[in-house]
Amino acid sequence: MKKHNFSPGPCILPQQVFEKASQAVLDYNGIGLSVMEISHRSKEFIQIMENAQNLALEHLGLQDKGYKALFLQGGASMQFLMASYNLLETKAAYLNTGTWSSKAVKEAKMFGEVMEVASSKDANFNYIPKNYTIPADADYFHCTSNNTIFGTQLRSLPETDVPVVCDMSSDIFSRKLDFSKFSLIYAGAQKNMGPSGTTLVVIKEDILGKVSRSIPSMLDYRVHLEKDSMFNTPPVFAVYVSMLTLEWLKEKGGISSMEKINETKADLLYSEIDRNPLFKGFVANKEDRSPMNATFNLTDESVKEQFDSMWKEAGINGLNGHRSVGGYRASMYNALPLESVQVLVDVMREAERTS
Amino acid sequence: MKKHNFSPGPCILPQQVFEKASQAVLDYNGIGLSVMEISHRSKEFIQIMENAQNLALEHLGLQDKGYKALFLQGGASMQFLMASYNLLETKAAYLNTGTWSSKAVKEAKMFGEVMEVASSKDANFNYIPKNYTIPADADYFHCTSNNTIFGTQLRSLPETDVPVVCDMSSDIFSRKLDFSKFSLIYAGAQKNMGPSGTTLVVIKEDILGKVSRSIPSMLDYRVHLEKDSMFNTPPVFAVYVSMLTLEWLKEKGGISSMEKINETKADLLYSEIDRNPLFKGFVANKEDRSPMNATFNLTDESVKEQFDSMWKEAGINGLNGHRSVGGYRASMYNALPLESVQVLVDVMREAERTS
C-alpha cells in the first residue's frame, strides 16, 4: 500500500512522475536506451535540460528578464559557498531564521564581513524577525524563504535596493511571489522539484563579475552559465525527474493553482492543531507558519507511544520532528495530496477521542 | 530493440541494475515508497549508503587499511578542486595525460605551485609519458589512470614516496591494481559504477589536516568523513544505483573476473583495428592503449558516410570520437557485453568488404 508520505525531503513526488521515471530507467522514449545510459551530449538529454530550464523560468515568471536557470550539484549547502564566493566582496547582510541560514552565514564569513541583520535564534527560531534594517552598502541580502526544520516561512519580503539572494529549497514553486525581486534564487530539488542530487540556481546575470577574487571553475556561476549547465557531466537522472515534475506542475495549473491547494492543506492541518487540546503548534506567531512544514508538539507526552503507533498504522510516513524541535513535523509539499492530510487529521482526532 | 551502447559516459549499466532501479522508483523493497522519496536519514537509505561504501572498499581491497569511501557530488571536476584545496600546501606534481589532467592542473594552480612532471600534450595526448621524476618534496603526485577522450591508460604506476592522488573516473573497478599505493582515489560514477550524479572518493585518512588554509565545509574531506557522506543530502538515487552496480560486480566475481572479460573485449576490437586496412588506432604505442576506450580513425575518409550508417543500422550507439580526436571511440566499460563488441567488429569487417 502506498504510504502517506510527510517526509521533509527527499519527499513525495507526483505518482505520474514516478511512473514515467520508472519506465525511462528501462527505456527512454523507445530509443532502446535507459535514460541513465544516454550521453549528456545526446540530443535527448540536451532537450531534457533545456526543457527543465525553460519550465523553471516560466513557472517563476522570469523568462526574458535577464535570468538564466542552472541545474548544478551539491544542494543548498554548496550554494552557501558559491553565493558568497561569487558575490561577497566586502560586506553582506544575512537574515538568520534557522539552521540553514546559520550554515549560510558560516560559509560566507570566509569571504568577507557578514552582518546578521536579525536572528530568531533567541527563541529556537520559532518566529520570523521583522523590522530590521538592511544596510544600503551591503553587496547583497541573503534570506531563507522557508525554514524546513522549524516550520516558519517569510510571508513577505523586505523592500531593499541591494540584490536579494534567497535559499528557496523548501518552498520554491509552492506560492506566488514577485520572483523578479530576487537576483539569485537557489533550491535543492528534493522538496517541490525532484529527487535529491540536483540544485536549481536561477541567476540574474548582471550581478556577476563584481568580486575581485579568482573563483575555481566549479564554483564560478559564469563558467556554468557559459556552458548552459554542461560544464561538467550533469546529474542526468535528477534533472530528468525534475523536468517531469515541472511538467506536472504546468499540467496542474502552475504555481497559482498549487498555492491554493497548499493553503487548503495547511488550513486543514493547522486548524486541527489549534483545535485539538492534545497538540500545540511550535511556531510562536500564526502569521509565520509555513504551509510547507507544520511543526507541532504533544501537550501531554504520555500519549506519545499511542499516537505514534496510530499514525504509523494509518500508513503515514516521515512525521517525526527534527531533533532541534522535537514532536512532529508534517511536510506538505506540492505532490502531497489533500487526502493524506485528511488521514493525518483523522488520526489526530481519533487520538484525542481515545486519550 | 536494446542498443549496443558504446557511449563514453554516462554509459551502459548492467541490465539487472536497470530492472531493479526501475522497480525501486515505483516501490523500494515493498515499503510503499519510491526510493526517490525516502529520507536520507531513513534506515533504508543509511543501509544503502553503508552497503555502497563497504562494497567499494571491498572491491578495491582497502577494508581495514585506514581508508574510507565517500559518495559526494560534482564529479571529478569538483575533485580537481577539493584535492588541491585539502592537500596542496606548497607544491604538487601532476602528470598531464589529457584534457582532464589539464583541467586538474588548472584548478590546483590556485592553491600552490604545480609542477607538471611530464606531459604528452605535444602529440595531442596520444601516448603516456614515462621516465619522469617526481620530486620528493611534493605534497602529492596526481595522475589520471585512464584518459577517456584519447583512449590511453597508465598500465603501470611510478614508484614514489609522496602520496599518490588518482582520478580513476573511467577505469575504476575494471582492472586489478595495488590500490593501497594510492592515498586518494576519486571517480565520477558514470562509467563503471553507476549513473551520473555521484562521485566515489576513497581516502586514506592520515593524509588530511596538513594544509594551513581554512577549507569551506562542502569542500573539506574531513567534514564529509565525520558525517559519513551525510553532511548534506546525498544524491540518494545515484548512490542506490551505484550500490546495485557494485553488487552486480561482486556477483560477477569482482575486479579480477571483470579484468579478464575486459581484456577479451579489448583484444577482439584492437585486433580488428590493427588488421583492418580501413582503420588506424589513434594511440601511438600499443602498450598505452586503454581497454576501456578504444580510439580509432578511418584511413579513408570517403567511406565515413557508409560506415556511419552501417553501425547505426546494427543498433550501435555512442561511437563518435571526441572532437579533440575525431574518428571513433568505442567505450567498453564493465557492463558492455562481449556480444556488442562482436557486433562492432562484424560491422568493421563488412565495411572493409563493401568499400
Could you explain how this protein is built, in words?
2 copies of one chain form a homodimer. Chain A has 355 residues and is α/β, with parallel strands linked by helices. Chain A folds into 2 domains: 15-251, 3-Layer(aba) Sandwich (Aspartate Aminotransferase, domain 2), CATH 3.40.640.10; 254-354, Alpha-Beta Complex (Aspartate Aminotransferase, domain 1). In chain A, 35% of the residues lie in helices and 17% in strands. The first copy, chain A, is built from 9 helices and 14 strands. In chain A, the strands form 4 sheets. A 7-stranded mixed sheet of chain A has the order 2-10-9-8-5-3-4, with helices on both faces. The first copy, chain A, has a 3-stranded antiparallel sheet with strand order 11-12-14, with helices on one face. A two-stranded parallel sheet of chain A has the order 1-13. The longest helix of chain A has 22 residues, at 254-275. Chain A starts with a strand and ends with a helix. The model of chain A has no long low-confidence stretch (mean pLDDT 97). Chains A and B meet through helix 1, helix 3, helix 4 and helix 6 of A and helix 1, helix 3, helix 4 and helix 6 of B.
